[in-house]
Design a protein that fits this description.
alpha+beta, single chain, Aldehyde Ferredoxin Oxidoreductase Protein, subunit A, domain 3, four-stranded mixed sheet, Aldehyde Ferredoxin Oxidoreductase Protein, subunit A, domain 2, 15 strands, 24 helices, six-stranded mixed sheet
């Protein structure tokens, strides 16, 4: 059958074990209830992946979902979500990425791609509107992402967009991601899921137009969004200076810039790494994803010196901090090289920086020696050691690198000798570069995100100002912003354009007024602001229920000892320790409608958001939900 354009779109089901492909119309009620993107991937992880599945086994299901606005002319309508049981954390896993492939999938008519089983040989999925096939990728296995992308485009044309894994995904590195256009669906190790399935890439091209129901109204709404963006100082700042410019200065001023595995909150070499340093020597141009007018991305090149010839889409702030200040490294050219290698091999720079920083601190404290590291000197600031370890982790070369390839929490347990004390993670995931001690209420998000120490599930413009509020009021505000930042994930939109880089009132207007109107104009299906917020809350509860079924409770909603036990030694946050975990946890569960002792959603809350079937399933699995 032909793919169905418009609402609700088509489902492409791929069985890698048998090679069977099937295209069906997406269930309309499901599409209305879960909207798209993360809504689809989170609900279907609950439905399709049993609790005891091995994340790297053929029973794990890879779920790919653009949003209903992905591929439209709305600003920054580029995002897609990939979801599966996480090999890194063992719980709910997903990665969100921009670039151009999400738009191609949506224009081709696919609102959802479900990938089952494991191929007997390397393959890639090729989509050209209604022409869908699995093609041999044996000649691509062992190639990096850039080589793979070029080879597929030579075969099918440069208009084809490619999402691929590099050697890290092939080697089942649990911090590997899926790379497209120098953007990664980076977190939770989904590159390893593709590698475990012998799926080297998925590629898509479409010659179709986005199927608007009411193009005139849609264009009027887009014009309003563009006018807001053209005049908003925060949007203009991120366009001019990127995330590196907007965040590194601010986090350093707060005393919360990750420095030497979060031992400190300010880095002496910061001025060698910031936007001004990048712009002075390496920045070539600003870039953006499909239909992006904000253009926060950077393209950089090194023209001379040790790393001459390096070209990379980046760097983002998290990469500069993860491979720079986190490791005591102030050589920006070396960080650009590390960024390039991570993109080539397909690895998450946050978790990559996390495992290397952890290793360097163990080396500093003499918990490990060169004997343990396969001969590497892991001194702070040694960028040669960083680059060599990046390569070794991708190829699992040597015992130590292979250990780090499993993630910081697994490595810490295996090393022992007190190593776990210095593993900065939550549920197996490394946090963003902003130290929780510097901004306490806001960074409670690390403790309760369904993916681990996540900064993207709960975030807000101006969130740094919550620390002075009564705990319950602060939790209520945080919950409100959790709902708002979920909406772009459902719609296929970028959080930067709709939430982060704007005055808070402007963000609220964009998300709660303009976005539901865009959805209605695009699909012809009426969606109110209240219905959209309810859908976002429903998805949050699905994710919490999913992890509850896997055995997570309130005890897992915690922060590492670095934050809760070690006072910040110097800088603006000097003396601060994270001392509000328990009251924040109690307030959070209260505003969510979850059991205040276990953190598990109550039956009343699940029924309230339309998840009575999940309430029944949890009870059948022996989980107390009252």
């Amino acid at each position: 059958m032909k793919t169905q354009l418009g609402f609700p779109g088509a489902v492409l089901t791929v069985n890698l074990t048998t090679g069977q492909l099937r295209i069906e119309t997406l269930d309309e009620a499901f599409a209305r209830t879960y909207i798209g993107g993360r809504g689809f991937t989170s609900r279907l992880q609950y439905d399709l992946i049993p609790p005891k599945v091995d994340p790297l086994g053929p029973e794990n299901v890879l779920i790919i979902a653009p949003g209903p606005l992905t591929g439209s002319s709305a600003p920054s309508a580029a995002r897609y979500v990939a979801g599966a049981r996480s090999p890194l954390t063992g719980i709910l896993g997903d990665g969100n990425s921009g670039g151009f492939i999400g738009a191609m999938l949506k224009k081709a008519g696919y609102s959802l791609v479900l990938i089952y089983g494991k191929s007997s040989r390397p393959v890639y999925l090729y989509i050209d509107d209604d022409d869908v096939k699995l093609l041999d990728a044996s000649y691509l296995w062992g190639k990096d992402v850039y080589e793979t992308t070029k080879a597929i485009q030579r075969e099918h044309g440069r208009a084809v967009r490619v999402a691929a894994i590099g050697q890290a995904g092939e080697n089942l590195v649990r911090i590997s991601g899926i790379v497209t256009d120098d953007h990664l669906a980076a977190r939770t190790g989904l590159g390893a899921v593709m590698g475990s399935k012998n799926l080297k890439a998925f590629a898509a091209r479409s010659r179709r137009r986005f199927p608007y129901k009411d193009r005139t109204t849609f264009n009027e709404l887009v014009a309003e969004l563009l006018e807001i963006e053209r005049t908003d100082p925060r949007a203009l700042d991120v366009t001019a200076r990127g995330t590196l410019g907007t965040l590194m200065d601010h986090h350093s001023a707060l005393g919360g810039l990750n420095t030497m595995n979060f031992q400190y909150g300010q880095f002496q070499g910061k001025n060698k790494l910031d936007h001004e340093a990048l712009a002075a020597k390496y920045l070539v141009k600003n870039t953006g994803c499909y239909s992006c007018t904000l253009k926060c991305d950077r393209y950089s090149r090194v023209d001379d010196g040790e790393f001459a010839g390096v070209e990379v889409g980046g760097p983002e702030y998290s990469t500069v901090a993860g491979l720079g200040s986190s490791l005591g490294i102030d050589n920006l050219a070396a960080i650009l090289k590390g960024n390039e290698l991570a993109n080539r091999y397909g690895m998450d720079t946050l978790d990559l920086g996390g495992v290397i920083a952890f290793s360097m601190e163990l080396y500093q404290r003499h918990i490990i020696t060169k004997e343990d590291t396969d001969g590497l000197d892991l001194e702070w600031g040694d960028y040669h050691a960083m680059l060599e370890l990046v390569r070794r982790i991708a190829f699992r070369e040597g015992h130590f690198a292979s250990l780090l390839a499993q993630g910081v929490h697994v490595a810490a347990r295996a090393i022992g000798r007190g190593a776990e004390r210095y593993a900065v993670h939550v549920k197996g995931m490394t946090p963003a570069p902003l130290d929780a001690r510097a901004v306490k209420v806001y960074n409670f998000r690390y403790a309760v995100s369904p993916r681990g120490a996540d900064h993207l599930r709960i975030s807000a413009p101006g969130g740094y100002g919550l620390d002075g509020l009564p705990i319950l009021e602060a939790a209520e505000k945080l919950h409100f912003w959790e709902t708002l930042v979920t909406v772009p994930d459902l719609m296929g939109l970028c959080k930067f354009s709709y939430v982060y880089y704007a005055d808070p009132e402007v963000s609220i207007h964009r998300v709660l007024d303009i976005v539901p109107a865009l959805y209605t104009a695009a699909t012809g299906v009426k969606l109110t602001s209240e219905e959209l917020q309810q859908a976002a809350i429903r998805v949050v509860n699905v994710e919490r229920a999913h992890n509850s079924r896997l055995g997570l409770t309130a005890a897992d909603d915690t922060l590492p000892p670095r934050f809760t036990e070690d006072p910040m030694p110097e800088g603006p946050a000097k003396g601060k320790v994270y001392d509000i975990l328990e009251p924040m946890r109690m307030a959070w569960y209260t505003v969510q409608g979850w059991n205040t002792e276990t953190g598990i959603p109550t039956r009343a809350q699940l029924v309230k958001v339309g998840l009575e079937d999940i309430a029944d399933d949890l009870e059948q699995n022996g989980i107390e939900i009252e």
